[in-house]
Amino acid sequence: MKIRALLLGLIAAGITATAAAADPIVIKFSHVVATDTPKGKAAEKFKELAEKYTSGAVKVEVYANSTLYKDKEEMEALQLGAVQLLAPSLAKFGPLGVREFEAFDLPYIFDGYADLHKVTTGPVGQMMLSKLEAKGIKGLAFWDNGFKSFSANSPIKTPDDLKGKKMRIQSSKVLEEQMRELKSLPQVMAFSEVYQALQTGVVDGTENPHSNLYTQKMHEVQKNVTLTEHGYLGYAVITNKKFWDGLPSAVRTELEKAMVESTEYANTIAKEENDKALAAVRASGKTEVYQLTPAEKLAFKKALAPVHKKMESRIGADLIQSIYKETG
Ligand code: LMR
């Protein structure tokens, strides 16, 4: 124990000496949501821990709310090395050529967070992260957000209630198929543009966990929110592989520790943050929140079930089967 403490002390001292001798290593962490969300808070937590553990040898600059890059640009910026950390939604990796993450978008594939964690903390999750390496990207962690609700400007009680509506989605082929299955018209759009698109009627509705709905004020421009919990939205924390591998190993070790702890933090607060956001949406009185009856929810499950089969050729029947197996 004493030797370990001594070694850690020496590493810290080494890092401090490096910090004093040179400019800090700057890590730009760009994301698209508000600071007051599970991802926004976890990014701040990572900054706090990374700077503390490296004794200032690393400086983390967090850019929230798409202030640095929007959805598509941030992926390109990471590959070019203009930013070092991102946490895009798992629904946004298709355009990069990594389709496996779209399995997370399959309607009703997870029956709650416990089910989801079996995948994100197990071999299937690790396999998915490893698919990023061919793109020059290293996957560091999965961060939770939550389960999505549909919203629109008319009541949503049955799958038919979304028929003919223009629905904003993230850039995922599974989400596109999900909307087509409901006979609505999917429109891929950057997150930063959703509020205005809803306000001006460019789209009629959307889907998101409540923390995103509330912090982007979408509930102020959507009269109806229905607790369908039809799909999951979460994140892969990613870095530029060349950058990460090129870090001094003592620094990288401390950053890995900061990442493990901020991941635990993210995945502890996610549900609570979404529950709080839903309570705030309700309290605002600006939108009607509808809780489906079990029979109504079953109707959504049935209507969306064909999406799994139809997406086998895109994301792989084996992968879908291994998720079914892991979640029991
Ligand atoms: C969305 O575009 O709706 C979400 O992916 C935003 C986010 O990062 O949670």
Automatic annotation (TrEMBL):
Pfam entry (one): DctP
This protein's record includes keyword Transmembrane helix: no
Keywords: Signal, Transport
GO cellular component term of the entry, any: outer membrane-bounded periplasmic space
GO annotation (BP), single: C4-dicarboxylate transport
Superkingdom field: Bacteria
The family this protein is said to belong to: Belongs to the bacterial solute-binding protein 7 family.
UniProt protein name: C4-dicarboxylate ABC transporter
Lineage of the organism: Bacteria, Pseudomonadati, Pseudomonadota, Betaproteobacteria, Rhodocyclales
